[in-house]
Every structure is written in C-alpha cells, then in structure tokens.
Amino acid sequence: MHGREKEAEASIAEIEADVAATKGEAPPVDPSRELEIRPTEQIGHLALLRSLFQHYPSRAIYGGTLMNSSSADWLRRVLVWWRNSAQMAYPHAPQS
Predict the structure, then answer these.
(1) What is the pLDDT of residue 95?
(2) For residue 59, what are the contacts with CB-CB under 8 A and spacing of at least 6?
(3) What is the mean pLDDT of the chain?
(4) Cα distance between residue 29 and residue 16, in whole Å
(5) How confident is the model at residue 91 (pLDDT cuts 50, 70, 90)?
(6) Considering the entire predicted model, what is its pTM?
C-alpha cells in the first residue's frame, strides 16, 4: 500500500520469523481462508464514521465520548493556563 510493497513484505516476514522463533512454525493456511488485502482510493471521514456506527455502534459512541471529553479537558487546561499566565504578566490588570 502507498507504493511501499517491499517494505510491507519485509515487515511481515520479520513478524512471521519472530513468531516462528518464539512459538514455532505456523501451520499452513487453508486457501479458502486466505485474505487478500487490496488498496483502495481514499476513504472519506463520513464513510469511516458510517462504517463504525453500523458495525460497532456502542464502541463508536464510547470512543467518541472519550475523545470529546479528552479534548474538552485539554481546552480547559489551556484556558486556565492562559488566564493564570496573563495574571502573572499583568498583576495589576483588572480581573474579569
């Protein structure tokens, strides 16, 4: 994918060699169960969201809630820091 097929193949070969060294050789895969990964054109955010909510609705809501609360907490921290740094820089400025 992304024009780096040789690097991908080398990475997979390294993973397979590591697994073989620690767990032993993997049995051969039945041809009827093989997967073929094909690159596609860019997928838009809406298509990704639609797929997530169709296949994993509770996980999508949970993940969205975590991301939203994390960004809200980050914004709150930045605003508190900004207010405190302004008070330290201008201690005689009127407080709002």
Answers:
(1) 64
(2) 52
(3) 84
(4) 13
(5) low
(6) 0.40
Q: For the chain, which residues make up each domain, given as ranges?
A: 5-89
Number of Cβ atoms within 10 Å of the Cβ of 45: 7
- The owner of tokens 């895969």 is 29
The tokens of 76 are what? 């709150």
List the structure tokens of 68.
Answer: 């939203």
- CA dihedral for 3, 6, 12, 18, sign (positive or negative): negative
Encoded tokens for 23? 């767990």
Place of tokens 């690159």: 39
* Pair of tokens at residue 50: 């639609």
Calculate ∠ Cα 66-67-73, nearest 5°: 90
User: Whole-angstrom Cα distance, residue 30 to residue 70?
Assistant: 44
